[in-house]
Every structure is written in C-alpha cells, then in structure tokens.
Amino acid sequence: MEIVPVTDGRGLERFIAFPYEHYRGDPLWVPQLRMDVRTLLSPRKNPFFQHAEVQCFVARSDGRTVGRIAAIKNDAHNREHNDRVGFYGFFESVDDQATANALFDAAAAWLRNKRFDTMRGPMNPSINDDCGLLVQGFETPPVVMMPHNLPSYVALHERYGLRKAKDLIAFESTSAQIPERLARAGRVLAERKGITLRPLDMKRFGAEVELVKALYNEAWEKNWGFVPLTDAEIEHLAKQLKPVVVPELVCFAERGGKVIGFGVALPDLNVALKHNPSGRLFPGILKILWHARRISRIRVLLLGVVKEYRGSGVDALMYHWIWEKGAAKGYHWAEGGWILEDNVPMVNAALRLGFSPYKTYRIFDKAL
Predict the structure, then answer these.
(1) What is the DSSP letter of 27?
(2) Angstrom distances, CA of residue 226 to CA of 77, 240, 270
(3) How far from the centroid of its chain's Cα atoms is residue 345's Cα?
C-alpha cells in the first residue's frame, strides 16, 4: 500500500472516483454530480483557492484505490482566528486502520511542513462547505450539502488519536405546522416592531445576492470556526444554487426599509441525485429531473439575523414564513441546521419551533 500525492488530471479523477465505488450498495449514500466535485476542487473555478491551498492524496494497494484525503491550508481561517490550524477533508477509506493512519499521516506531514500546529477536520474543504464526520444518525440519508460516511470512520479517527473539537447538530421536523403560540407571537412581533418579510425576487437576483453579501458575514461573525466568505465565494455559491432555488423558500426580514435578516431553505435535491449512482451528468440528468418532481423535503440551510435584532424573535418569524410557504408547496419534512452544540440560543429556538435533534456531526482536532 502506498500514499500517492495527486499531481495531475488522472490522479484527480482517481481521487474523485473512489467514493462511487466505495459506497456501492450503501442505500443511504447519495452520489453527487462528478462535475460539481471537479468544480469544488478546481483552483480555476472555485474562488476558495484565492485564499487557500489543497493537496490531495490517494491510497493505492495492488493497483486499486483504497482511500483518499486532502490536506488544506486556509489563510482566511488563520487571519480570522489568528491561529496555526490546518485542515484535512474528503477522507474516505476502507475499514483498515493501517490505511487510515497512512492517509492521516500524509495530511499531517504536509500541514506540519506548512508550520501548522493543529490538524482539524473533516472540512470539505471548509466550514462554509459540507463538514464534519457523521457520528450519530446513520439510519437516515443525508440532505443536500451535508456529508455522509460509514460508521467505521468514527473508530478510524479515534484510534489515530483525533479528538472531538466540536459537535454540529442537525434537527428535523416532521410537522407541516409551526406551533400556534409561536406563530401568534411572530405576528405580534411583526406588528409591534414594523417587521415585514418578503420572498427572493428572481428578477433582481444579482441585487439580492448583493444584499446577502452585506448580511452574511455580519450575521455569522463570532461563531466558533467561522470564516468570512469573500464576495467572489458568495457569487460562486449563488450561481450554483440559482437553478434549484425556490423563491418562496428564501425570505428577507426588513424593518424601516433595511434588511435585518434572511433565511434560505432549499429543496432536498439529494432525493433526486440518489437515483443517479454513477454521478455522471449524462444520461443521469434525465433520472434526476424525473425524480426532482417528487421532492417533499427541504433543508433550512441559512438563517441569520444582524446582531441588534438577535433574540427578538425575528428568527422565529422567518422560520414561520419558510414553514408556511413550504407546506403550501407540498414540502412536509425539513432539516434545520447544522447548529453548533453550544449555541444555546439557536438550539433552544429550534426546540421551541418543534424541531428534534436527529444527527450529530463531529469536528476533530489533533496536535501536530
């Protein structure tokens, strides 16, 4: 068995292809479009690489791929937190500790050479993308833009010496109705403080993205691990999401003509993607489009309020909006999150809204 750094297109294709073979037969794994994974890992296409560097590795044994990992240098994180934390991500491995150890060692050596003192992950490739290792909730499939892994990965991490840094909690709601007392409180709040809600205006999509740029970093600042998104990264994300956005599931909260918060929910495209096991666009797009008509699940991806209005109930008001509009369009199940385990206000808000914790994702650290 050898660990091979990815240095060319053929190596990158091996890196991308491994999960499609590795998870074959797993009814819960959802194959993403290979073209989207290539874009994510492309310095030419993904603006993340304007402030980051990634080195991918594959584990090879007897001519076949048995694992992969990426080592990640994220300058934006280090500037924000003034630390020397490097990252690993895209970890996949056969259930063999020696293989996992060799992969972790390769990432750690690369990071150590960059003068980092801690290895953290998994980040794929950052906290603004899908991140965390699933450690609880293996019985249900992942929703759009959330990771999935085999239960064996937990032991592979822990036996290597990786230790919990933080847990991320995902919540679910199986009800199409928000609790009436909260709906009533939201209406009173809106009337008393003059807060109005409106949907995303697709005819002004560019201007709406500019509003999100102004709000996003302010609404999430000071969260553990938070890394500001650049304007280019927000534009890139908006371009990717535009084809699947349902305008009624995106809301802006305004007061006195000023936007004070926004919420984004997306249809769970994984429901359709899982019917395309190869991950290839053609002829898979036909299956995806066919099954996309039957999506009845959403993920509340983002919900942010500017600092001066936090704790005022604006978040509940936006949840109510998304809930009501989603139910009217036939969505009857929702995932909320993820939410940091120690973000008590947001955890309590989710519980009050009728959500229940159902999955836990873990971020691990190891001293270098």
Answers:
(1) T
(2) 8, 21, 26
(3) 21
Q: Which residues contact 209 (CB under 8 A, 6 or more apart)?
A: 234, 235, 238
pTM over 0.85: yes
Q: How far is residue 215's CA from residue 72's CA, in Å, rounded to a whole number? A: 27
Tokens of 144: 């759009």
Residue at token pair 């926004």? 262
Give me 305's structure tokens.
Answer: 């309020």
Give the end-to-end CA distance of the chain in Å, rounded to a whole number: 24
Sort 53 into a burial class: Cβ within 10 Å, 0-12 / 13-18 / 19+. Answer: middle
On the question of a common fold for 2-164 and 173-363, the answer reads yes
Q: Which residue has the higher pLDDT, 101 or 350?
A: 101
Interval 127-175: pLDDT, tens: 999 999 999 999 999 999 999 999 999 999 999 999 999 999 999 998 7
Within 265-343, residue ranges assigned H as helices are 270-273, 284-292, 314-328
Q: Which CATH class is domain 173-363?
A: alpha beta
Q: Which fold has domain 2-164?
A: Aminopeptidase (3.40.630)
Residue 274 pLDDT exceeds 90: yes
Query: Which residues on neighbouring strands pair with residue 301, listed in sequence order?
Result: none
The strand pairing partners of 196, in sequence order, are: 254
User: Where are the chain's structural domains?
Assistant: 2-164, 173-363
